[in-house]
Amino acid sequence: MRQELMSLPKTLADDVAKNLVMVANLIDEDPDQAYAYSRVALRLASRVAAVREAAGFAAYATQKYGEALAEFRAARRMTGNVDLWPVMADCERGLGRPERALTMAGEPEVLKLDKAGQVEMRLVAAGARRDMGQIDAAIVTLQGPELGSNSVQPWSARLRYAYADALLSAGREDEAREWFAKALEADKDGATDASDRLAALDGVQFVDVDDDDEDGGDDDSASDEGDEKS
After folding, report:
1. Separation of alpha carbons 26 and 24, rounded Å
2. Alpha carbons 146 and 119: distance in angstroms, whole number
3. Which of 133, 122, 205 has its CA nearest to residue 169?
4. Is the CB of residue 183 less than 8 Å from the CB of residue 164?
5. For 176, which of 7, 34, 167, 208 could close a Cys bridge (C-beta 3.0–4.6 Å)?
6. CA distance 78 to 75
7. pLDDT tens digits, residue range 63-97?
């Protein structure tokens, strides 16, 4: 990105960089604000691929899938890079076009992706199958050596979680519980709610301590009132 910004006048490059930093910092916690910063960067430097990509992710985070897809396509035209292929396919899903996402999953571009990108494409394809009501096909799509590997990779938790969720949707609860547990083992950063899903399957209910305190206080008051009446 720095090299791309070097093509701009220094003051302009600094302004664009500041906005891109804000996009990166806010996109998870405040996607709407990140989107606003991305629009500023886009207005300042629409011919910079990194800006178009950042604008795409900000739009994607706010579920503006048509806009995100347009930005990702622009960034890809500028760079020739295929890394954005899976998220572009997921935009098609967001636009209600799962068939297009599946078509993209079979295109030659997928073969140019690294392992992480190929796994991401598989997740998108499985999601498209589920969008179309093809739950068994979604389960098969997620199966493969990456799913069965004992090696934990950055994408392992999400892949195992998606597989468990698909199994549960198919009514295969015992298998789903096994894979939610495997997802939890791989989820070192808390990227999924696998622990909550496991607890739900085991019938565990979490009680809010504050609610208990409030209820307890009400009970004491009622008891005091009863004592006064007696």
Report:
1. 6
2. 8
3. 133
4. yes
5. 167
6. 5
7. 999 999 999 999 999 999 999 999 999 999 999 99
